[in-house]
Amino acid sequence: MLARRTKTLLRRAGLLPKIRAAAPAEPPPAPPASPQLTPDGRYIVTADLKQKLHAHGIDTSPPAGAMALPADCVLESPCSLQSMEIFGRIAIGSFSYAVNGYYNNVTLGRYVSIGESVQMGRGDHSIAWLSTSPFFYLPHPVFNVGRDFEGAASLHAFRPDLTDREPFVQGRTIVVENDVWIGHGAYIRQGVRIGTGAIVGAHAVVTRDVPPYAIVAGNPGRVVRYRFDDALIARLLASRWWTLAPWQLQGIDVSRPAASIDALEARVAAEEPYQPRIVRLTELL
Ligand SMILES: CC(C)(COP(=O)(O)OP(=O)(O)OC[C@H]1O[C@@H](n2cnc3c(N)ncnc32)[C@H](O)[C@@H]1OP(=O)(O)O)[C@@H](O)C(=O)NCCC(=O)NCCS
């Protein structure tokens, strides 16, 4: 055994390895947080999920825990959900946003702008049955109530007899194409398609498909005019300019589309389409 002083001298002379302080042990990785679900089976946007969405280019406004998203949620980056209430399946294209409102089975293209309190895909009740009440067609409890009232035990035990009944089907998909602007408080009926470049006026009730570049207003929604003449609409649709990102359109005078259409077509031909990251909610959980 070498004396401590001898070891120190040998170390200083480089003849014994230096003593290194033991590296602090790495903390074990935190177990992945298990996804939190709402009673209707949607994923709560926890702080962790909100941060992941943000990092992948998806903007959400409500604080952690105050928003929920369905499993079937496919989002192109960047897009902004702000305070949307999303129930059934949703797909949203890049550069699109909605301020808030209700969405059920909706596909939004690129560059879609949606104002406040828009309602898309509200479900119908059973119109042709004896009753429109969900007590007769929902296979699960209609109310979330306690047991201290007349009939409570029977209510909790009750389920409608749905055997041999025509299924009550709803939730036809709404398709909103590209560069559509939907004004404040509009109601869009399930199953409707809104064409590229269309505008839906404030408080319009849209029950029928909307042609590309039409401006629709009123209740029921009617075409009040078209944004551009037929020839320009045809060239804009054929150009598919929305496949490019805003920075790829720099230098095009977007305020004068008729004067810029040649340059726009040339730009689309010259540029590679923007390839967004596609965010599937289930891959972030
Ligand atoms: C539809 C809108 C874009 C205007 O389009 P426009 O073609 O310039 O419309 P005009 O003002 O020339 O009006 C054309 C006709 O449509 C009617 N109209 C316009 N907007 C309407 C609306 N929201 N509801 C019912 N009718 C409407 C006009 O009264 C006019 O009818 P008339 O020809 O019988 O007089 C605009 O009125 C609108 O609704 N904007 C939405 C604003 C909004 O919600 N902003 C929130 C931020 S996203």
UniProtKB/TrEMBL annotation:
Keywords: Acyltransferase, Repeat, Transferase
PROSITE patterns: HEXAPEP_TRANSFERASES
Enzyme Commission number(s): 2.3.1.28
InterPro entries: Hexapep, Hexapep_transf_CS, Trans_hexapeptide_repeat, Trimer_LpxA-like_sf
Entry annotated with the keyword Chloroplast: no
One function term, GO molecular function aspect: chloramphenicol O-acetyltransferase activity
Domain of life: Bacteria
Protein family (similarity comment): Belongs to the transferase hexapeptide repeat family.
Annotated protein name in UniProt: 2,3,4,5-tetrahydropyridine-2,6-dicarboxylate N-acetyltransferase
